[in-house]
Amino acid sequence: MFCALASPTCAQAPAGGAILESIRAEGSHIPEAQIVAETGLKNGDLVTKDQLQLVADRLGHLGLFEKVNYEYHTRVDGLSLVFHLKDAPRVPVLFDNIPWFTDMELGDAIRKSVPYFDGTAPEQGSLLDRVGEAVTALLAAHQRNVAIEHEVIANPLGNGNVLQYRISGASVRIARMEFSDPQAANSRALQQHLSEIVGKPYSRLTIDLFLAEQVRPIYLQQGYLKAQIGPPDIRLTGNPNLPLPDSLPVYIPVAAGAQYHWNGAHWSGNTVITAAALTGTLGMHLGGIANALEIEAGLDRARDEYGRLGYLDAKLEPRPVFDDAAQKVAYQVSVQEGQQYRCGQLVLTGVSLAAEKLIRAKWPVAKGEVFDKLKYEDFLLKLDRRSSEIFGELPIHYDQVGHWLQIDAQKGTVEVLIDFK
Fold first, then answer.
1. pTM score of the predicted model
2. What is the enclosing helix (H) or strand (E) of 360?
């Protein structure tokens, strides 16, 4: 949204032009001098009202600002201008298949034309093209003339989105992958998965996913809960003036850090299930290796216990508390149990009357009973498998089973809707 706010103290609008005496910008975390530079205005310029609106529009089109307002005051000796800004949300920038330069080197190249670039960017606006043009120029200076494209994608390793820049149609490949830590380098399990990435097109996104899904679990299950893995490093050798190579070795720095041992769990907010019972679901032993994968699986079992008792809204929020000196970790788990639900109607669609009769006969949770989520999920698996335990010898004809839970918090009931296609 862009609008011009004429100050009530303004003597006259500068329709015929006025000399710019001062220019300021407020409300943004971007340094004022850099915003002023983006306007293209400087003290001593002759400006008109139409020109001021064009400048405000240009600032808005960058995508950096959610709102761009301005006001001006004219006096005998000139015009003072103030922009009132509200920053737009930003997302992290990911350089996907541009492996010859580090993020720092790419950032330095971008800051030559976009000095306020900090590794993040808005999801839209002309600024995105300027970032791409800076990367294109850097590659061209190293004898690689390519087209750079960008798109906003869901962050595969976290919440929200990321802005991905990549070379269009690139064919750079991963020659090999090396690890600084012997534990990863000598892992048989990891070696079996390297073929999924070695020899394939270079993609920072793919590498990061590989590190998260195949490498990090090796350390987490051994209690290395603060292991630092990556970022991937490309170590080029040879004449820097030669064209950039198309096949690259990828080096992964790994700092395992301390190995932590289990120091217990502490629960708060639980009233339905005792702390001892919840701790039992974790399956951990004091002093044993703090296997993060087993801990998370145990927390899932604790959530299942609440689901079995009809507490469908239950939330468990774990927070590790580290004792670095003793290399121990305890978990503080905050529990929000919510309310208990009972089973309401079972609604079936897309199935024959004969099959519906058999399904209802085998439905494991009677109307009015506490809704057991585990029984519900087990029943869905049987439907997916077209289990004879439900249908006997009856011929059935469906390919998919859609299912929904319709929760009524006021009544404390949940209706089950199952659709066969």
1. 0.77
2. helix 353-362
Using the 8-state DSSP alphabet, how is residue 333 labeled?
Answer: E
For residue 192, give Cα distances in angstroms to 186, 195, 197: 11, 7, 11
Confidence of residue 274 (pLDDT cuts 50, 70, 90): very high
Identify whether 231 is preceded by a cis peptide bond (ω within 30 of 0).
yes
- pLDDT at position 206: 92
3-state secondary structure of 149: strand
Q: Are strands 161-167 and 342-349 parallel, antiparallel or unpaired?
A: unpaired
Domains of the chain: 2-87 (3.10.20.310), 91-167 (3.10.20), 173-255 (3.10.20), 261-336 (3.10.20.310), 342-420 (3.10.20.310)
DSSP state of 238: S
Residue 234 Cα to chain centre, angstroms:
25
pLDDT tens digits, residue range 112-145? 999 999 999 999 999 999 999 999 999 999 888 8
pLDDT for the residue 11: 36
Rounded Cα–Cα distance for residues 204 and 94 (Å)? 8
The model's pLDDT over 51-94, given as tens digits with 9 standing for 90+, comes to: 999 999 999 999 999 999 999 998 877 899 999 999 999 999 99
Q: b or e along 346-379 (b: 16 or more beta carbons within 10 Å of the residue's beta carbon)? A: bebeebeeebbebbeeebebeeeeebbbebbeeb
Length of the chain measured in residues:
421
* Residue 237 buriedness (CB in 10 A; 0-12 / 13-18 / 19+): exposed
Identify the pLDDT of residue 75: 80
